[in-house]
Amino acid sequence: MTAPETDTPATESDAPSTETLRERALASLLTARDRTTLLTTCVEEPDLTAQHSPLMSPLVWDLAHIGNQEELWLLRAVGGREAMRPEIDGLYDAFEHPRAERLSLPLLPPGEARRYAAEVRGRALDLLEGADFTGTRLTEAGFAFGMIAQHEQQHDETMLITHQLRTGPQALTAPDPEPAPPFTGPAEVLVPGGPFTMGTSTEPWALDNERPAHPVDVAPFWIDTTPVTNAAYQAFIGDGGYDTERWWTPEGWAHVRQHSLNAPQFWFREGGQWLRRRFGVTEVVPCEEPVLHVCWYEADAYARWAGRRLPTEAEWEKAARHDPATGRSRRYPWGDAEPAPEHANLGQRHLRPAPAGSYPAGASPLGVRQLIGDVWEWTASDFLPYPGFTAFPYKEYSEVFFGPEYKVLRGGSFAVDPVACRGTFRNWDYPVRRQIFSGFRTARSEAV
Fold first, then answer.
1. Would you say the pTM of this structure is higher than 0.85?
2. In principle, which of 53, 129, 369, 374 could form an S-S bond with 165, CB 3.0–4.6 Å?
3. What is the pLDDT of residues 200-238, one digit of tens each?
4. Domains of the chain
């Protein structure tokens, strides 16, 4: 096998300066905190302290947990400071208390949680001002600051999920994505076979499960040019998809029967049409948008019904990163530049996916669109470590989740911030999860 080129190497001459890293860290932290503030001030205190679903934490838990993790990793681990509130560490340890039990804990009330998070942030920014980003792996290239910015944005996404699950009037607003003409390009794209470099060893803020870069040989395959749309998914429903056992895995069929599933979460039928509830608003399901709030079992069943399959994680990443002209793996489908509004629907800029086929500037070299942003995309793969994986800086981020219980999602959604989304970024969840902002696209092997 001919080895592919590795991901873009970092050399001393093109490495960002300390000041550039400091500016990036500062901007990422401030952007995350602005979003956290929006998500926790748009509702009254009873909504902050309530548990809107046993699948999610009370919003006030997320708020204080964000501050606690920032204190643990920036003030204590990097700055060597003494603990500010050691008595609350256990309350906000995500592994010590399952989400369904957190409402019963003696949590900080909203005002105290805000003051605690703000005090931690002030001290962290003082620390950032004097950081030189050298010395240890935790401090190199500002990794710890980037890790904390990503952590906060990930919790912002979970809080946005909680907002979707809560009942009551609309609390969040955002402009809709720009209208897009109906997509008239090819329905699928052929991705050539051969090796490519998967993962990264050079992305400074990449998390442990994205590492290391390694060659993977992928057979040629076809992949959908855009994510599967609501209209296409309605055809599956209309053809009896939820009532036909042969499209489902045994586990999926049992799940459908047990929970009486008949459509994506938040959909309901009224007056001969499909409606959905989205952040407190009821609306007609838009046919042109990528389907949202489907679990892995639903995505897999649709793919079987369509005579196709879900792409493997390696296939998805090759479609998103591989440049056939150079053999190089890009950071993003469009190249190495950071995401801009013309590339992808990210950062809660909108509160819905853009129409399928949007963002031609964000397409891969082969013309695959919307691989980044809009909806997380289920893949066929279990969440497993890459060859040579090393847990860092703690095994509870990735290592404890490896195994067949979890399926991999790739690409991010409209709820993901660019700091926590790149061509190598890996997400994972149970195959039954539907409250997440998940969709999918399908693939098929090239006919021999």
1. yes
2. 53
3. 999 999 999 999 999 999 999 999 999 999 999 999 999
4. 18-165 (1.20.120.450), 176-448 (3.90.1580.10)
